[in-house]
User: Fold this.
Amino acid sequence: MFEAMEQFVRVVELGSFSAAAESLGKKPSSITRKVNQLEHEVKTKLLIRSTRRLDLTPDGEQFYNQCKQILQSVHTAKHSFVKEDAKVDGSLGIATFDSIGRAILVPLIAQFRQKHPDTKIAISLDNNLSDLHKGPFDLAIRYGRPDDSSLLFRPLRLMPNVLVASPSYLQQSAPIESPEDLKSHACLAFYRSRQHTWWHFKKGTEHRKIRIDPMLSSEGGTPLLMWAKAHQGITLVSKLFIEEDLKDGRLVEVLPNWQASLTEQDNAMLYLVWKPSSAQKPIVRAMINDIVEALSDRPKEFVQA
Assistant:
């Protein structure tokens, strides 16, 4: 039953049986069978399945939370022996995006070194994906499942994007009623060398692909956010980083009825990725635990892949 609970939790976290199967190296039919057996054992329906969606039933929501607590307890117990048997020291390299690094990873590393002072950590805030096999990095935080099947990975949380601007900019500019209206506005976007910049929009079954000619561009998300708050235009950023700005009114959502993304696939799942050769290092295991604890999340609704 423990294995079935793990697979059920992974299905909920990733939003589909196929994604859970891929992350666990199993067939989707095997995952489906395990979850069906789990529902039979607990004598209640846990998931509502449709052609495009998976939703937790009320009992499923409660059972999911209980499973998470049980799995976390086992995980903590298992790794408590690692702390006793192996000292957390040595060097560690982490690669991630600028915005995630500044907002989340930098303070997390400071807390990590307070617990483990005999460690040396190097961080790269580079929006270009680092090759973990060639570079000096043990871990990476990135969007989407890695294409390299030799890497180990774990889903962390959904990071939906949102289109935002300052109230002052919107008051002084033409109304924005559809994605096409963005063509006449000052857009702030990631720098793409010799590539066109596209923003993708979805509402129900309707999809739009808009080519953006940025007035200001940057390789990192931090400058884009600063420019937006300085009334320079409209940008597309992860909602996680601007919740306080939205709450305090420094930024407002643009086209809130549309789901905006940087890619056509709209893969907003954040993943922690690491090399198998690094997995046995106590410093790597300790950092993985801290990152998962800080970032792991699950939406209440999700789309089935």
